[in-house]
């Protein structure tokens, strides 16, 4: 089976994990702190504003909690998003309000978001679809002028940039995911960026039970009663650990090579599908934009898409559509909303295999099978 995603990990990651074992400390510790510092340098931020957590979902939930949503507060987000984003808003006490997206890029414009804003809107969450930064600079500017908090869901965009600026630094809060499917992985894990220093400190407390200070060996050096508890507000345990951080540090060092190969694969797909009018490849990136190339999506007539996906699966090629439109999910209470761009994208889009483990021959096999399946379905 040619799979959609495949993590790239090997001897370097194993050696890093072995070193953690040798140090006899597997929990959140010096390697977690070092990974936070390395990732901070990667995005051009200060280490104390970064927090390594145990999943991207935990990062989204923490971000939503930091918004201090009150009953009736609304949070605008694009309908094609991962379910964790809407769940985080709901669990924090807010109401998700879904906006439309461009049917080709699956990213919202500043105007799409503005159309969903009401007097009850408190924040905006933006996903950078497939690694494409989208209209983030204009969205951030409008949010600042409107007094709305901006959360960037950077799960797809670990190395995406607009000019020299990394995505995740435009908003007030940002989250990256390092699950097994992502461009770089820690198995499970995520990184939270908080622009405000006070909120960053609060996030660190909330991610470790709400404790204002640790109660273990490290604190024994500065307190005579290191076991005493100081809990300004209750939290959960959402911090990452040194095992996964050690893997993350190696993966971050390998990231340039991952990105180079992903770009080669994207360019080969473009070449192999050029001139095939029945299928549309991803649009070109705007000038100055850099993608992480997390997804490669093609689009075709809606009546063909499901049949084509089934034919490819029979041929040993796994494809899918990411991400299903959330405005269709009854649990979020968004019934009746008209989002034509999101609906069109959901009906016509198919994501093809994209990971550095693919050979050029694999890519050509996928492209040829796609052409064959589309022609048969037509």
UniProtKB/TrEMBL annotation:
UniProt EC number: 2.6.1.-
Cited SUPFAM superfamilies: PLP-dependent transferases
Highest rank taxon of the organism: Bacteria
A GO MF label: transaminase activity
UniProt keywords, alphabetically: Aminotransferase, Pyridoxal phosphate, Transferase
Family: Belongs to the DegT/DnrJ/EryC1 family. L-glutamine:2-deoxy-scyllo-inosose/scyllo-inosose aminotransferase subfamily.
Designated name of the protein: DegT/DnrJ/EryC1/StrS family aminotransferase
Cofactor: pyridoxal 5'-phosphate
One Pfam family from the record: DegT_DnrJ_EryC1
UniProt source species: Streptomyces chrestomyceticus
UniProt keyword Transferase present: yes
EC category: transferase
Keyword match Transferase: yes
């Amino acid at each position: 089976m040619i799979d959609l995603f495949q993590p790239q990990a090997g001897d370097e990651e194993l050696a890093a994990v072995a070193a953690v074992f040798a140090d006899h400390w597997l929990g959140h510790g010096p390697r977690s702190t070092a990974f936070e510092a390395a990732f901070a340098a990667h995005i051009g931020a200060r280490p104390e504003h970064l927090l390594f957590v145990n999943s991207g979902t935990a990062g989204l939930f923490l971000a939503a909690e930091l918004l201090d949503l009150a009953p009736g507060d609304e949070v605008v987000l694009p309908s094609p998003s991962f379910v964790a984003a809407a769940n985080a808003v709901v669990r924090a006490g807010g109401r998700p309000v879904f906006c439309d997206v461009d049917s080709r890029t699956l990213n919202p414009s500043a105007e799409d978001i503005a159309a969903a804003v009401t007097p009850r809107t408190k924040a905006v969450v933006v996903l950078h679809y497939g690694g494409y930064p989208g209209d983030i600079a204009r969205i951030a500017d409008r949010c600042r002028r409107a007094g709305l908090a901006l959360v960037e869901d950077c799960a797809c965009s670990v190395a995406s940039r607009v000019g020299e600026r990394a995505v995740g630094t435009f908003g007030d809060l940002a989250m990256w995911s390092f699950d097994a499917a992502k461009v770089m992985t820690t198995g499970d894990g995520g990184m939270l960026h908080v622009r405000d220093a006070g909120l960053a400190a609060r996030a660190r407390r909330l991610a470790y039970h709400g404790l204002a200070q640790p109660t273990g060996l490290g604190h024994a050096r500065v307190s005579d009663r290191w076991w005493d508890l100081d809990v300004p507000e209750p939290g959960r345990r959402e911090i990452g650990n040194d095992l996964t951080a050690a893997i993350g540090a190696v993966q971050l060092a390998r990231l340039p090579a991952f990105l180079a190969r992903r770009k080669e694969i994207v360019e080969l797909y473009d070449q192999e599908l050029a001139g095939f009018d029945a299928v549309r490849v991803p649009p070109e990136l705007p000038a100055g934009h850099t993608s992480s190339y997390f997804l490669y999506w093609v689009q075709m007539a809606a009546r063909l898409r499901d049949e084509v996906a089934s034919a490819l699966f029979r041929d040993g090629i796994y494809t899918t559509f990411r991400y299903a439109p959330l405005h269709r999910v009854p649990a979020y209470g968004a019934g009746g909303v008209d989002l034509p761009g999101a609906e069109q994208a959901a009906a016509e889009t198919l994501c093809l295999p994209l990971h550095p483990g693919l050979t050029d021959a694999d890519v050509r096999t996928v492209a040829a099978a796609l052409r064959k399946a589309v022609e048969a379905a037509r």
